[in-house]
Amino acid sequence: MEMKRMFIPAMVVVALMGYIALPGAYAQGGNSYVGTATCAGCHDKEFTNFSKFAKKAHSDRSIKIMSKKLSPEELKECYACHTTGYGRPGGFVSFEKTPDMGHAGCEVCHGPGSEHVDSGGKKNLIKGKGRMSVKECEKCHNSERVSNFRFKPMLFGGAH
Fold first, then answer.
1. Separation between Cα atoms, residue 88 and residue 21, nearest integer Å
2. Which of 106, 119, 125, 153 has the lowest CB atom count within 10 Å?
3. For the whole model, what pTM was predicted?
4. For residue 130, what are the domain limits?
5. How far apart are CA 102 and CA 99, in angstroms?
6. What is d(CA 16, CA 111) in angstroms, rounded to the nearest whole number?
């Protein structure tokens, strides 16, 4: 009886942890990440500007510099913001296995792109079409980050 009482709460905790860690995986259905290089095929101007001007285009450098001083748990927190799709289908796994996802690319703001790519570029399958007032954007684009990291939304920094 004692083991049965512990087993059910443990299952609930594991299920909730999976949902919290992978919210995009549940919300996006079969849509997976394809990488910024895939976006470049049709969006060359945006890709060139992003690569040239966006700090996030090279955010993997920060992680690599700091990684020796961080615990595995702290690294996971870094990956959540400084990589593309960490913990989600097609997203960042490691610098060795998924080097193209080791920076914060297009899909960090625009969402997983496989359905957009597979459809031939249907615009309604991409989120974040240039409006900074969208609640989801404000998770990253907020005054605290702007002041602490001199963070500039790429909407105003040359990517679009």
1. 9
2. 119
3. 0.69
4. 34-157
5. 5
6. 22
